[in-house]
Amino acid sequence: MHTRGFSATVLGVLACLLSSACSKPGSNDTASSDTPSPTAEASTTMTRSPFGSLPDGTALELYTFRNASGMEVSVTNYGGIITSLKVPDRNGALGDVTLGYESIDGYLKSSPYFGALIGRYGNRIGNAQFTLDGTTYKLPANDGPNTLHGGVKGFDKVVWNAEPFEREGERGVVFTYTSPDGEEGFPGTLQARVTYTLTDNNELAFDYHATTDKPTVVNLTQHAYFNLAGDGSGDILGHELTINADRYTPVDKNLIPTGELASVAGTPFDFRTKNTIGARINDDHPQLKAGGGYDHNFVLNRSGDGLVLAARVEEPKTGRVMEVHTTEPGLQFYSGNFLDGSIIGKQGHVYAHRTGFCLETQHFPDSPNKPSFPSTTLRPGEEYTSRTVYTFSTM
Ligand code: BGC
Fold it and tell me: Rounded to two decimals, what is the model's pTM?
């Protein structure tokens, strides 16, 4: 079912009327339209609308939040997927800066994790197994010999419980999910909570929280694919990128880190000063060959545990700028190398090679098998917390 347009708005309004969570004084949800006037002083809105259903009949929902400057994000409780993120360009015109589909069908049929919430373990665990406290846990291999992004049915493919909220200057949704002991091979019942917040400062923040009842490993992230041109066209090679990292984790032929923390100095991985994504992507460098381009974890420069700038991306034509701050030690920069034009996404856009990029904040890939990497172990009584903020502006 096509859930956008007039009917979705009407359904959203009906759903809102049934849900006190959507109706807040000062918000203008019933008056919202799906196509905001680009430069008008927008009022904040929250809508909740049907988003199709799973083959077993489970009904899905879409939550759309708009802030005071018109920036708008839509997310579904299926996989916590961001289906749309409309951000102003330097003239105030909104454009959708994420790749994805208009309806649930595309996500169910074939999606390289477009916009999805990733768990229990973002990126790869080598040979689909790890040993914790002397016990070896076997996981499903879904990426050659490895486990990628939590397994065959990761957090990107589960239905999350969703509670929309609105507070002064921000609104969003709290997603919760209880992952049973042994799900996708991981030990422990994991209580996961992820809060998506859109602020009036054009920030989209992700707060991750988890607890367990048995020792386990956890590494949650968000897998939005961005193209800041905002019109779904063209590759991302002209985007100008800065990454706050002196080192990265080189990988083997299966994209598993070797364990080394290599200096970026003098390599195509040096984004400490701004460079286009495309300037060196086809250089004759063994790590670019291994990844088919950039598909690597960067070791963020940090002192202390707080939020640090991980990356900044500028799109010169539209003037859109995105900054990523995180509490995580690592950042996976993936340049959309596996996109090959076989996916037709929103508005019929063909997602050709390198038409989207991901900046996934995370602990390093394969940490459960790499004792020298920052630990991803979570034990009963401990709390896993992580925060990442994507901030949009123009230049
Ligand atoms: C990985 C890529 C993978 C992509 C989509 C990224 O996080 O690093 O290797 O192809 O996700 O699955």
Answer: 0.91
Ligand 1 centroid, distance to 110 Cα (angstroms): 14
Q: Which ligand 1 atom minimizes the distance to the CA of 122?
A: 7
| Chain position carrying tokens 């923390």 | 261
C-alpha dihedral sign at 232, 297, 76, 202: negative
CA 298–ligand 1 middle distance (angstroms)? 14
Domains of the chain, earliest start first? 5-109 (no CATH), 116-394 (2.70.98.10)
User: 69: burial class by Cβ within 10 Å (0-12, 13-18, 19+)?
Assistant: middle
Q: 291 in helix, strand or coil?
A: helix
Q: Give me the mean pLDDT over the 276-288 stretch.
A: 98
Place of tokens 């005071």: 68
Structure confidence by residue, pLDDT tens digits, 90-144 = 999 999 999 999 999 999 999 999 999 999 999 999 999 999 999 999 999 999 9
Contacts of 190 (CB under 8 A, 6+ apart): 119, 120, 178, 179, 183, 210, 211, 212, 216, 218, 378
Strand partners, 162: 175
Q: Give alpha helix (H) positions in the chain.
A: 5-18, 104-109, 286-291
Active site residue 325: no
Please state, as a whole number, how many other Cβ atoms lie within 10 Å of the Cβ of residue 57.
6
Tell the residue nearest (CA) to atom 7 of ligand 1: 123
Nearest to 369 by CA among 145, 205, 153: 145
Tallying the residues shown for the chain, one arrives at 395
For the chain, what is the total number of helices (H) and then of strands (E)?
3, 27
Distance 335 CA to ligand 1 centre (A): 9
In whole angstroms, what is the distance from residue 201 CA to residue 271 CA? 26
- Cβ contacts of 324 within 8 Å, gap of 6 or more: 309, 310, 311, 312, 331, 359, 361, 388, 389, 390, 391
Q: Which of 202, 235, 224, 195 is nearest to 84 (CA)?
A: 224
Would you say 293 and 337 are in contact if contact means Cβ atoms under 8 Å apart?
Answer: yes
Alpha-carbon distance values, 331 to 324, 338, 355, 375 (Å): 10, 18, 19, 15
Tell me, using a 6 A CB cutoff, whether residue 366 lines ligand 1.
no
Nearest to 388 by CA among 321, 300, 315, 314: 300
CA–centroid distance for 241 within its chain: 18
